[in-house]
Amino acid sequence: MPVKVLSKFDEFQTIINSGEPVVIDFWATWCGPCRMISPILEQLSDNPDVSKVQFYKVDVDEADEIAKDQQIKAMPTFRLYKDGKIVKELVGANPGALQGLVSEGALLV
């Protein structure tokens, strides 16, 4: 499943409260580590074992209302949501930890 861009606050609320596991990458265009790990997130999202997990990216500069509401202080920040709640958070570009977060999301289906 491709990683979709999320920029509207009401859409963000709908998605995280959908009942499905959702992984969101909070990133910025000026963030080198964000650009480094982005292809890894794309690869993970294409894995058929996690096909029930939804994947989104939020540019914290373009979607500052979402970033402020979620109190995002560092990029990249990856969050796994289920039923509107944060299940797990990863701050930083750690491919192994990101794979673990995505795998945990697949178990929430």
What's the overall average pLDDT, rounded? Answer: 97
Which percent bin holds the helix content? 25-40%
Shape: globular
Q: How many independent structural domains?
A: 1
Contiguous helical run count = 4
CATH topology: Glutaredoxin
Low-confidence stretches: none
Please tell me how large the radius of gyration is: 12 Å
Q: So what's the CATH class?
A: Alpha Beta
Strands across the major sheet, in which order?
Answer: 1-3-2-4-5
Strands, total number = 5
Judged by helices, strands and strand pairing, the structural class is alpha/beta
The N- to C-terminal Cα distance equals 15 Å
Walk me through the structure.
This protein is an alpha/beta fold and 109 residues long. It has a single domain (4-107), classed as Glutaredoxin. The chain is 38% helix and 25% strand. It has four helices and five strands. The protein has helices at residues 9-16, 32-45, 64-69, 95-107; strands at residues 4-5, 22-27, 54-59, 77-82, 85-91. Strands 1-3-2-4-5 form a five-stranded mixed sheet. Strand 4 (77-82) and strand 5 (85-91) form a beta hairpin. Helix 2 runs parallel beside helix 4 (95-107). The longest helix has 14 residues, at 32-45. The model has no long low-confidence stretch (mean pLDDT 97). Residues 1-109 form the Thioredoxin domain. The record marks 32-33 as: Contributes to redox potential value. Disulfide bonds join 31-34. This is Thioredoxin. GO terms for molecular function: protein-disulfide reductase activity.
